[in-house]
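Comment thread on ticket #2218

A.B. wrote:
> Attaching the input chain for the structure job we discussed in standup.
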Amino acid sequence: MNNKQIIRLTEKYVASTYTRFPIALVRGKGARVWDADGKEYLDFVGGIAVNSLGHNHPAVIRAIERQARKLIHVSNLYHIAPQSELARELCRHSFADRVFFCNSGAEANEAAIKLARRYGGERLGGKYEVLSATNSFHGRTLATLTATGQEKVRAGYDPLPPGFRQVAYNDLGAMEAAIDENTTAAILVEPIQGEGGVVLPGKDYLRGLRELCDRKNLLLIFDEVQVGMGRTGKLFAYEHYGVEPDIMTLAKALGGGLPLGAMLAREAVARSFGPGSHASTFGGNPLACSVGLAVLKSMLQGGVLKNCAKMARLLMSGLLSLKARLPVIREVRGKGLIVGVELEQEGSKIVEDCMGQGLLINCTAHKVLRFLPPLIVGKKELEQGLAILEKVLARQ
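C.D. wrote:
> Ran it. Output below, let me know if you need it in another format.
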């Protein structure tokens, strides 16, 4: 089938919950993808920070093939070796002592919220409220969209569940003022706001939240669904800031393209989840966790993090050079290979024009072009992408 045929099928049979671009991607290799008509693109969207090892990475393919020949799925009624191994490695390389596996970022955040409430009920005298940040994004379930600080995500779903309030990001004073001594149990933030426009925390913001939570006896939850698993040049974004949370959520890059999410927690907090308190049929199945192990091994031993940091410097340098020459660029910001280019105008037309020239990026927060290339991207691919972007922006 060609692009038009696939698009017709989608429009007829698939729920219309997405505004899709008029191409159907059917094949990928490394940092490149091809549509059903054979056109080639540089993929700097990466499944929205999912394909950190690019497309068809040998380690991912080997893990899928090896595990698929043995066991694809069994219930969590039984012990699952790849799940146990992946949990061990995630704990070894993070602050955490326990891991709960699920299938997506929204589910990971849902689990974090449930754990915080259960902990609040058992250990904090019945406290249940979660404070989050304006401009944040935490998922599309009822609880996670209520925690999300974007009205467009919450619109149309009233009445929303109680127990959530949003506070301005990067404002420690506002966060402290918002704490209700009788109800607040946890603070939930993204170390870097991805969907909110690649907004970085101030130098002392995350450390200040940690100190605030310690002083007020609250849980600190980091949503690293988008920025975890190497995206920032370190395995976890919190490592840049010298701060550890009580709970952290992961997904996207964790499964190398397969649906896999995780909630990590300290032992003292995780203890509030006992048998029957939370569950997931598919969460942590053998196939997904085998791939997750391969992804983590590649991150830690295959030079992926080193390449991410190196290519991040090249990308940032190139974008800042464009900013110096093109007035349409207002600001360039990011960490590692999550980079936002804020424009003086709406960015949707720029995204479409870049796609026409063979570069896939996306726009968030209306005016921010977001770059999420695979962490294995090379210098020539970055230079090609920058050349396309310059060509398109120069027309503005």
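A.B. wrote:
> Thanks. Noting for the ticket: The two ends are 36 Å apart (CA to CA).
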